[in-house]
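ingest -> validate -> predict -> emit
validate: passed (alphabet ok, no gaps, 242 aa)
predict: started
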Amino acid sequence: MLDDIARLLEIQRRDAEILSFREEEEKLIADLSRREGILDRTKRELEGRREERRKMAMSRDEGQLDLDSKLESVKKLELQLFQLKTNKEYQALQREIGVLKEACTDIEDRILNFMEDIERVNSEIKERDKSVAEMEAGIAKAAENLDRDKGRVTAEIHRLDGEKRIIGSSVDQLLMARYEKILSHYGSRAIVLVVDDVCQGCYTNLPRHTVDEIRVSEKPILCENCARILYLDDHEGRDSES
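emit:
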């Protein structure tokens, strides 16, 4: 049993390495996904700003057409001033011209505001275009790194799985099956050290008779609380968690 425990500790060390490699890969995938999400949001925001600019330009152009029409009307009315015969008609036409000129001034102010807003949005779009380009370059680099690291991680996991199979072939198969079941439940650390009568998996105080059983039993002793396989410090120096 002691030999089997020692082999399981060797297997567990490799499982811990495999888990570390997989977590590393998951972090890279998560980082790439996060970057892509930010890029997608930035592109949508950029498209929104472009649409806003388009509407501003339309409003500016419509204002310009309205201004041109009113200015033409002012010119025509001013020509009519010389054809009027009475002072009353002259003053009425002057008032009409004045209203049109005030309207032209308001339109000119709006056009100027639209032009300033368009210039501001153009500046924002230019900056966001630059950000998008930088993000796309970063994502391309991250994807390249992920592809490279995937190959490395796959090779390392393949190597560790091979070592596990070789070591596991010398372990009692029922014990190996139990180890795998516990490992699949917890994700790591199926076999744990007992220190000062405390299970290092769940930190439960163990009955003294359980600790004594670990020393003499030919079968695996499990923690009554977390069901992990227990071992004493005979193998402590071999376990990376100790």
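Residues 235-242 have pLDDT under 50 and may be disordered.
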